[in-house]
């Protein structure tokens, strides 16, 4: 697979790169993103014989002809063995007629970030070692990326990993998942500020030539584990294909029948992977994009106007989706309208904080996507209603149930992609049942598990007893020196 740049080529960067280069050095011309030059096609009916998720993944990834050795890919996929059910790490659960949930959270940190970051981390480390290179990988997190990235990078050769999080801006469980991690090659830094401060500091470091030069002096290259890395997206298409095949195997659909995919969206990685799966030939009626009150994507998909001029991020009960600049949309624009137009639209977004598609362009977009958003109160109602019917979900997943009612015009199956286990957002889940909004996670976990007879995995309960190993909390001005001090050790 060759990757090309969404905003065109500046004559300094290579005009196309292989997968390995795109994941190690994701920065491309004019601030664009590496995207597949073309995608292979798949025939779902030919894939039906798979015996495990891993086998299916191997078969699909083989069709991409990645420039990464089969052994590295196999080692990466072996990490799914650590999921609750190694044969089927992403179970598709039937809720009622035509409503299914694909649970993407049965991995080590109980959120769907593991699906991509687990394999991504080992591949990155394997390639770095093969090339005899050492990397500093940086990430800023609002809660789910940090734990998943720490889990994948800890103790990996050739990698040092630093994770920035906003102190007080995550759930108790998310914070504990990070600060109880213990390995010599990782460092967790709490920032006094909000997620945006951590994110801005990260972008500054990634773009700083001085910082890069200092690192190079120590023989270290710089990379990032953010959600625009194509090395993450590639592992996400597989579960969309898998969920379709599961419906065929369960006799819910015949091969060739169309279904809806419903995705709780933030940076649009999950939804982009669904779009790529559709382009590869998966029979999808539409991809439903669910948002919370940060509903810029809803407006964009409904009207063709991406407008963040008068918007500020609002804090919601689905914090992983509290985003205004949804980065992976750029790859959809590129795929539909080409690099010139993408560069133009992204320039407008940077300078005027707004861009608008033409009528024809918007018509193209709305043949693929439909969208709606869900307020916190509506989300709580959905959690309550569905739990009374016997299914417990987290607040991100709940936004899909709202979007489904307005977006699914046809009476055909919908698969909702559930991105977190309720245990990661237990205070909101418990609050949805009782009306309280002052839960500590530990009390909320206890309440839900006892009242509704739900299991809590040991990796969550154990967190409250683990010693804190990562105690650094600093002002954002001191991030660079803190990172340098960590590298010296
Ligand atoms: C990251 C995340 C999302 C958003 O996924 P994108 O791929 O960025 O759109 C949704 N829900 C949860 C729980 C997440 O952690």
Bound molecules: pyridoxal-5'-phosphate
Strand order of the largest sheet: 3-4-14-9-10-13
CATH class of the largest domain: Alpha Beta
**What is the third-level CATH name, the topology of the largest domain?**
Rossmann fold
The CA-CA distance between the termini, in Å, is 39 Å
Helix fraction bin: 40-55%
Shape field:
globular
Number of domains: 2
Enumerate how many helices there are, as a single number: 21
- DSSP E strands, number: 15
Overall residue-averaged pLDDT value:
95
Q: What Rg do the Cα atoms give?
A: 21 Å
Tell me the structural class: alpha/beta
Unreliable parts: none
Name the quaternary structure.
Answer: single chain
Largest sheet: 6 strands, mixed
Proper CATH architecture of the largest domain: 3-Layer(aba) Sandwich
Strand content: 5-15%
Concise account of the structure shown:
With 489 residues, the chain is of the alpha/beta class.
Give an overview of the whole structure:
- It is a single chain.
- The chain is of the alpha/beta class and 489 residues long.
- The protein folds into 2 domains: 89-110 and 231-455, Rossmann fold (3-Layer(aba) Sandwich), CATH 3.40.50.1100; 111-226 and 457-489, Rossmann fold (3-Layer(aba) Sandwich), CATH 3.40.50.1100.
- The protein is built from 21 helices and 15 strands.
- α4 (70-77) runs antiparallel to α5 (113-130).
- The two termini are 39 Å apart.
- Bound molecules: pyridoxal-5'-phosphate (PLP).
- Residues 111, 113, 144, 227, 264-271, 320-321, 396, 419-420 line the site of pyridoxal-5'-phosphate.
